[in-house]
Amino acid sequence: xxxxxxxxxxxxxxxxxxxxxxxxxxxxxxxxxxLFFTTTPSAFLQQMSSRVVLVSVAVTFGSSFIASLIVFVFxxxxxxxxxxxxxxxxxxxxxxxxxxxxSFPPGVDGLILLLLLSRTGILGEFLGHFHIYVPxxxxxxxxxxxxxxxxxxxxxxxxxxxxxxxxxxxxxxTLGASPFQIFYKLTFPLSVWxxxxxxxxxxxxxxxxxxxxxxxxxxxxxxxGTMSVLIYFATQKGEMDKAIALAIIxxxxxxxxxxxIKFFFKETTHKIHA
Amino acid sequence: MHKLQxxxxxxxxxxxxVLCNLSLGIFPDELFxxxxxxxxxxxxxxxxxxxxQKFDSGRVAIDGIDVTSLSPGERNIGYVPQNYALFPNCTxxxxxxxxxxxxxxxxxxxxxxxxxxxxxxxLQGFECHFPYQLSGGQMQRVALARALIIEPxxxxxxxxxxxxxxxxxxxxxxxxxxxxxxLHITMVYITHDQQETLELADRFGILNxxxxxxxxxxxxVFYKPKTLFVACFLNxxxxxxxxxxxxxxxxxxxxxxxxxxxxxxxxxxxxxDLVTVCIRPGAIHLSKHRIQPGKNVFTGTIExxxxxxxxxxxxxxxxxxxxxxTRISRIVAKELDFAHGMPVNLSIDEAFVHLIPVK
Lengths: 274, 359
What we know:
heterodimer; A: mainly alpha; MetI-like fold; 12 helices; B: alpha+beta; Rossmann fold; CATH 2.40.50.100; 2 domains; six-stranded mixed beta sheet; 20 strands; elongated
């Protein structure tokens, strides 16, 4: 009796798991796949040849790549310092640089940047002396993407540095290596996949960013209209073919980036740490 | 002159005192073991000697030269950590050659030296392997070769065999001892394992409360612990509280509850002094037959017999209050047919009775 009861409970448990998983997976496929069924290839191609769409693709890609490059240059040293050094106020610094921006809604990021860079803002006023005005320009798009993706990058790279065994660095020191030699011969090569994973995540975050970009850069179709912003505007105006075409491109690119992370980085990481 | 001289080393972390005015001299060509329990400061001491961590105060000298202010690379100390810390992105050859390349040694010399040490350590055929493709024993040898190829003044090993299985561990320990004797290199070996210490050490020191509690040869420390901590840490089986009844020169008569024990000591003790009497099982001889009456001959009853490794530990009730523990091999025990409750005779060799004054 007891055994039969246990068997029935286990069967029910497994069945319930399968049922809910199936419902969720079907729902996700429906949402993601629905994009492809709501347009026709000819309508998609027509939108793809439109100048506005092409400019938005160029603005999105250009700004995302530049932002990711700047993020890489600044994040690697910052993550290294956070991983390797102990100093007073380190926890507060981590909260300000990584945790807070990660938990802020992108709209708040955009507002902060706008207040800072507007003509009356602290930085905006200073830059005004050199006739530099950032809001509603391509630089604003880059800055908005940079601001939302940098905590991701620092978080990933720091984790990658943390995973490198400190004994490896200690042995290298005793063999006569300098801190720089240890970094470029051991620490960086050993965490390179984590760094690249962070970079791909930052790029993925940049590509889809809308909140901060919309507030700081507006959505000027010829210069600051990123794909996400244009999707928003097109939906508002009822230009569904344009919105769908842009959404398909974004969805496809994000899928490619996530696939790279899932398969390529997982296997190589296993090999290094085996 | 000492190869490594540590003088008044102190280190604290916040309010925790890890090392406290520690001084120690290690002779050239000896294998010195620092033995201590987890968290006693072994690793802090090692990192400080290597220069990877700064001591709050004190001096580290190698061959009489003060190296306290030198960087780890300038100290020329080989280091083999617990997990070997091989460079995962480098092959066996690159791992071993790492130190020489940093020293800008010519390619030809690097090739020759690395090939030579690879042959010596039996790593032929593994030159192009990465660490994850090696066994524990092979990784250990690569770590040793990498540390030794720079011809260090001394070699520091941090529990280097603790991650290996028993068979490989025994093999590596024997190899280590051979390498040390062959290359005449001074080794400082850190461990928490007393068996390993007794097998390997020329001399060893016990680290406790930030100080070396006692150091000397294994026989000296094992059979003549100076403090109760050392006696307990080295698992001295019989530690009995006693009082000195008579003293004549170095000869003593000690009262331990209902038994009277005769021994001799060079310690400055007086009649009436309280002492802890330490008796190793090897000093106690058991017999089913009558032993000629003489010094330290007692009768008792076997209270229990327990297997301990390859031996049996036999507890003998000598008086209602006193139990003595001894060990005999299983084969001898089988021949003598000892059993629980059996009356036995025992004699204690006075040469192996050690006294610790009670302060």
